[in-house]
């Protein structure tokens, strides 16, 4: 039921930024998978026998970066080609079948790495292995002693290689941004002396020392996250996938909701949440889910654009939701120096509010579009839970182990082992040696783009730290907003969204955290609130026009209009855009991150739930314009989470209800 057709597989490769782009074959494919599998084994072993942090990150990148040049084409990435084609309006209204080949193309000579690719892979290996031969001497040179000419050459070569790696994996935007920061570091002394962002300037040796030998550059926190957290979770997701969890999650979702007109929409949303636990990617979840869910939504009577909106909103929700969240959540844990479990707690209430908003919108749309229940050929939910419910155990175990003070690293490794062991309960998905090898290789290959992004983002973080640009830009933002927290927050949200249109979620979070974070800190926002605000807006860039990758993927599946699908997705995800303002703008907002007395947490959650319901009414289209305007005003007031605005919001919502009753009686007199 969950197998992808050739068309859906092609969509994944066209849209998904986190999968290898080349279709390798033969001995080369086997070699790449062997190296990937060994990288996964190394990452698992280091959890229990750790080595020095920088040495570990350098070793990890030495294995991962050469694979990028072998697994990714040197031409324009499929993602960029797709967006360019969308931008010119080509085939905007054509069904997905017209846009995609009916049969996946067979690998050709163009799929094989060129001589240049092999050279780049060899140079990447050399410049990363070179320091490891005498690591202590290398660290000493970087911590004060002069770098050698070989150090400088290797550092410059690695910089160029990382720029090329991110260009191949996620497009030109991030590479260009990195180049701008490098130029700024070198030529900053030429800026007018009265400019806030001016600095004394740094030569090549100083820049290389900062990026190549320190803990603020290539091998900083983002790289630590990729080499420790993310690789372990991609391995875990691959093991879950190969053990049959993906199929179980979708089957269970379709079995759970069968009776009502809103059941198809709720089913798709629930399936997206569960499937996202395995894929860890909004676009991949949207595409994988769409192969099964779009026929069901179509039979239920959903138009193409609302169906695409449901698919995209369900897919992106998995990145916002415990127990896995997205890659940026691991970086939050490192920046805050808290356990990953605490970050999961921060995200719990916003997740509840997010899905509450989607379910309420689905209920309204089921009436607006006169949808109906659909019979789906799936086993009974009870039977599925009895037979395959063990797939939930490893997910629950991660939370339990972290609650028992086990590290996130150890928790996910143990959960991976449990998922492997439980696979033997299902003969069809029993993980023998071949499946284990495939899962290990898949886990490593799926982390390659994130690794390239995190290492390249180290260029930006390193330059910002070296030049003091972060604090200077924070001052500019605060001054531009005249010190007003509301205006600063609005400007910050817009800035993160605009940044997210150009670069992937992980990179946009890292950049925004070091630039926008200090601006919010300066106005009294706590680090947890600021980083979670940036996190949500970085993730939501995937459903924000004009790019909205998840919505583009959903429109390609349903054949709907791309722009209208984006707007429907935006409507379904609206609570996620507004709730972050609540926990930044008001002291009681921290309750939405699970912080504070339990009574306050419950009360603020209930008030926020009413606000989300008011938003659903305002955007739903069933009520008249007077009621919808009043409901929108009520929602905004309620999300201030202070006594006076709450009372005012409830009063406005009561007026909206009264107006609706009066208007309905006039339309339908007794």
What does this 3D model show about the protein?
This protein has 32 helices and no strands. The chain has helices at 6-15, 26-48, 53-71, 78-87, 96-99, 115-129, 135-142, 149-170, 172-187, 204-213, 221-242, 245-256, 263-279, 282-300, 304-320, 327-336, 340-368, 381-388, 391-403, 408-422, 433-446, 448-467, 469-480, 485-502, 505-521, 527-540, 549-558, 562-572, 574-585, 598-620, 625-638, 643-667. The two termini are 50 Å apart. Residues 1-20 and 77-110 have low confidence and may be disordered.
At a glance:
Helix content is 73%, strand content 0%. By secondary structure, the chain is mostly helical. Helix 6 crosses helix 8, helix 11 runs parallel beside helix 20 and helix 15 packs antiparallel against helix 17 (340-368).
Q: How many strand elements?
A: 0
- Gap between N and C termini: 50 Å
- Please state the overall shape, judged from the principal axes of the Cα atoms: globular
Q: What's the mean pLDDT score? A: 82
- Rg calculated over all Cα atoms: 25 Å
Number of helices: 32
Q: Report strand %.
A: under 5%
Q: Which structural class is indicated by helix and strand composition?
A: mainly alpha
Poorly predicted segments: 1-20, 77-110
Helix content: over 70%
Major beta sheet summary: none
Pfam family, one: DctM
Keywords: Membrane, Transmembrane, Transmembrane helix
Transmembrane segments: 30-51, 57-76, 115-133, 145-163, 170-187, 226-250, 271-297, 309-331, 343-364, 384-401, 408-425, 445-464, 476-499, 505-526, 533-557, 569-586, 598-623, 629-662
Organism: Nonomuraea helvata
